[in-house]
Write a structure and sequence with these properties.
Blueprint lengths: L9 E2 L1 H8 L3 H10 L5 E3 L2 E5 H10 L13 H10 L2
Antiparallel strand pairs: 1-3, 2-3
Length: about 80
């Protein structure tokens, strides 16, 4: 096995930005603001894929499924079906 065959879970700025679908400058801003998990060793900053995945999941929206809230299309159907 060659060292190039090993896939590291640690991302550089470029690789993490590509993984998240954002610009590197945006990622640098988020690091400066402490908005995203990262590890700094001296001047080197790295992002662990597992930490990024957890961080992304924490931002998931809670659905209103199972409540009395109606979707806009359901409201329109209800309104237009009345005579």
């Amino acid at each position: 096995m060659d060292d190039t065959d090993i896939i590291s879970p640690w991302f550089s700025y470029e690789r993490a930005a590509a993984y998240l679908g954002i610009e590197v400058g945006t990622l640098r801003n988020w690091v400066s603001a402490g908005r995203i998990p990262f590890v700094r060793r001296g001047r080197v900053v790295r992002f662990h894929r597992g930490d990024l995945d957890r961080w992304l999941r924490q931002g998931e929206c809670v659905t209103t499924e199972g409540t009395d809230a109606q979707k806009p299309s359901e409201q329109t159907r209800t309104t237009t079906s009345r005579q």
